[in-house]
Amino acid sequence: MDRRGGKGLISVKRSAFRHPAVIAAGSASLAALLALNVTAFVRGMDSPWLLGSVIIADMVVVAVGILVAMREVLVADERSKRAEDSIARAQFALVESEARLAAIVDSAMDAIITVDAAQNIMLFNGAAEQMFRIGRDEALGAPLDRFVPARFRATHRGHIEHFGKTGATSRRMGVSTLWALRADGEEFPIEASIGQAGEPGRRYYTVILRDITLHKQHEDAFKQQQQELRELSAQVLEARETEKTRIARELHDELGQLLTALKMDLAWLAERLPVAEPELAAKARQMNEMLDQTVSSTRRISADLRPLMLDDLGLADAAGWLVEDFAKRSGIRCEFQLNGAALDDLSKSVSTAVYRALQESLTNIARHSGAKNTWVVLALEDGSIRFEVEDDGRGISPEDLAKARSLGLKGMRERVIHLGGSLEVARAPRGGTRVRARIPVRGMLQQAAAP
Ligand SMILES: Nc1ncnc2c1ncn2[C@@H]1O[C@H](COP(=O)(O)OP(=O)(O)O)[C@@H](O)[C@H]1O
Ligand SMILES: [Mg+2]
Fold first, then answer.
1. Has this prediction a pTM greater than 0.70?
2. How many CA atoms lie within 13 Å of 176's alpha carbon, on the beta-carbon side?
């Protein structure tokens, strides 16, 4: 309602007769009239004109008095009529605004339920009717508990009472998923907030609820899909590993043996070459050198694919060889700390994950860090394997970690998470980069090895 308009409606102009100047003038005139009357009373018989004029003056005053009184009555009447009018209008505006508020509450998409201090329902909007599948008439006056699954009732009631004592005006309800109960007995997940108003003793609480059944279904489906993808990626990694192992074995065993045989044959042939043909001997030497190169290339390719040492000797030796080979090839100083005797009894999946993580971390240091020093820790402690690779290079940034096409660190994380572990890649306290992983090995020791 317009405030100025409202004020105009209620205020009535004050009567002009109540102005102090008018009252003073009126009193003076009355005093003069009284004096005139006294004079006329004393000397009236002597001067009939005085008597006459006093009578006329008296009559005029009486007439004016009557007129003023009539006017005042009329004004007062008008004033009370206007006051009644404005009260009626204010009442109408109040009813109208209440109706508007009720319409807003009723058209809200979220369920809105107000309860009194005893937690009995005072307001139940349209969305609440739909959500709880019950009519308003039945819900009003019922305890709020009716819409809370039985096993949560006591705690829920306690929470609302506690909230009443905190004095906070509103807050989100529940830290984890909350559950509500429809009239037909179906439970459903909700998101809710609560607010309070009123004074102690006459406090009431308003709960705003949203049905998140669909949302939760999507979330569960999403989690399920993520889990499936994770399993798929683990399977792909494992298949790749198996394939690499097979090729590495074949290169090492088959090709290695054939090359050795070839080398022996060449030696046999070289011995039998005619001495008169030095060119042939030179050719044989050249071939022998090429054979040596081929043998070492085959070994290197095979070891890069999969160090057979990892399967034959275990993680500790394979990691040691990897670190040594890295230091030799890159020229970066490398400190290797190995703790834990049982490192060689790890399951194939754990030792492969750690070995690949170490390989990727060292390759990254050589490719990206510009470091001079590297520290590697491999330890078995508290039922898990701790793995740390740190360098003193340029350090890693959040943008580096988010690179879409970089799959090294992501693959590392996938492997570790699949084994129930955790991995952290961050800037190291010394300024470079630090990769830290922890993988539980309880029950994984000597587990039936994957093919
Ligand atoms: N030790 C490191 N020092 C500095 N930057 C690094 C280091 N390791 C990784 N990075 C950065 O993180 C990015 C992602 O690494 P990664 O996932 O292994 O993918 P890729 O090596 O194929 O680029 C790299 O491109 C590089 O910019
Ligand atoms: Mg990489």
1. no
2. 0
